[in-house]
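Example: Protein kinase domain-containing protein.
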Amino acid sequence: WTNSSSVCSWIGVTCGLHHNRVEALNISYMGLSGTIPPQLGNLSFLVSLDYSFNFFGGVLPLQLSLLHKLKFISFKVNNLSGEIPLWLGLLTKLEHPSLRNNSFTGSIPTSLSNLTNLRLLSFAYNRLSGVIPSEIGNLQNLAQFDIASNRISGTIPVSIFNISSLQILNLHHNQLSGSGLPREIGKIYQLKRLSLGFNNFTGFIPLELFNMSNLQVLSLLTNRLSASLPTNLDRGLPALEELYLFRNYFTILELSRNNFTGFVPHFLGNLRMFECLSLFGNNLRTESTSSELSFITSLTNCRSLNVLAIADNPLDGIIPASVGNLSTSLQIFEIGNLTNLVTLSLYNNELSGNIPPTLNHLQKLQGLDLQSNNLTASIHDSICDLHNLVILSLSQSNFFGRIPECLRNITSLRNLYLDSNMLSSSIPSSMWRLEDLLMLNLSSNSLSGPIPSEIHNLLSTTSIDLSTNHLSGSIPGTIENLKSLSSIPKTVGIMISLVSMDLSYNNLSGSIPKSLEALQHLDYFNVSFNAPRGEIPTGGPFENFTTDAEFQVVAFISLISLVFIFVRYRRKNKAVNGTDELVPTVPLERISYYELLQATQNFSETNLLGVWSFGSVYKAVLRDGKIVAVKVFNSLSEASSKSFEVECEPSNVLLDEEMVAHVSDFGIAKLMGEGESTMHTNALATMGYIAPEYGVEGLVSTRCDVYSYGVMVLETFTRKRPSDEMFV
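Written out as structure tokens, the predicted fold is:
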């Protein structure tokens, strides 16, 4: 600044276009020091004054009260002291006064209530004391009230909650108190941020606080508040992004089935009065700095905790050994000294590693649910030490190896789910000694061998699913006195409570026992994709089985991207040494029935592609995004098995423009019976692929397959269609 140049050209000075008078002065962030000059009061046209982020000290001069046109004034982040002057109430056009981050003392002047145009009032990070004037409630245009980090005491005046325009209310780090928060707090519908942390509030949190649809940040940490937080935070606080509750007296924190993201916070361990913590059904993760679920260690401080539910979150970590140090009052752990633990549920958490060896200390455990994780390990015999276990669910968790023989020791077991793993070897005969078992699911594993005759001991069982394994043997004709271990035991007939039995996708043979007609409650029986022979029982529950019943479900998967014959040449411009490189055959995937249900949306009509005499075809989208066709055969039709076999005849292979083979359905393949060398049939013409005698006379023989296969090979090597001119 120099006397030789016009004031209006100085840095930080803005003048009006008409009267050439100073309207704005901004010298922020210039590292200036000293005191505020009283001569500023002579700038009668001044509208905006910004001295922020400097080193000015002293007090605000009285002459500033003459600036009646002032709308914006900021002295934040300086070294100013003294009391907030009463004359601020004379600047009636003031909208935005910021004095934060200074050393102002005294109380908040009541004269501020005259500033009816105020939109922001920021006195945070000073040394103010006294109470919040009730007159602040007169500022009906106020959007932000920030007095955080002062020494303000007393209660929050109810009048503040009449400011319907308020969006930010920062009162944290003061000495405010009160027995419970005012219920009127729920009237500030536009509030986006409420910060009341580090005060002395006690009592209960009003439910009205949890019905503020615009609230994004709620901080109540380090008070002495208590409450049972509601389960409907996703509906009552749909915009909530941040929630801080550190060091309060909450006994119940129920945040399940919301859309919370980020890490499970360690500060939860400081809520020492916790009795129930429920976070299941969100998108929470554990901190990436550790492979363990480290937040569990912090919860060992919560000695009153009796319910911990963290299931159905993508936690993706290892259960730490500190799980054994959680509260001895813990009864339900949905994720030692846990002598009272009743339920441990950690399903669908992407957990890895092994089951902690300390788990067998949980002698009162009745429910253990670890399904849908990545626990690639064997099932250790120590699990058999849980003698009070009622429900054991280890489904879809990549367990491998054998089924422990010692499971027979858990006589209290009612529901056993080991399906969709990689378990192998045979089913231990001791399994059938669990006489009170109600539900048994061993499907979608690699179990082999026969079904032991001791199955008849499961008199109380209502559902047995052994499908999609490698079980073998025959299906016996009688039930009561079967001695052979190479069959489905005859004693199945005395299991009068049985409702569901699935033996599909095995290697079983023989007839379906007629004694199954005695199972009055049976409404699902599946032996598809085996080799049963003879008549299907017609009495008892079989009278009600129709082509629409569950009895029929058999699936054949034609992967659009995976093929029976997969041969593909590189494009000509990628040829090496004059020869093309063959793409290797893609291995066929093994897909569980459970995954097919999900992929087809439970075989819904919206996924139905078509219906034929032998069954239906559904569109399915697998977990990795692959699109497949799922064919569901009617197993009550004898022709369905033949239809399954002809799906992979050469005539049903279609080559695309890149010479990639796909399993298709031209309807031209036929299956001849044993001893037949030729047969006559009607055929639709498929140019180039059908042998002449098939297309002209309907004469079918194995030579037709040879012809079709030859055409396909020729097409592959010449990269020409059968209809190409070179073949004419």
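Confidence is low (pLDDT under 50) at residues 476-491, 547-587, 666-674, 676-685.
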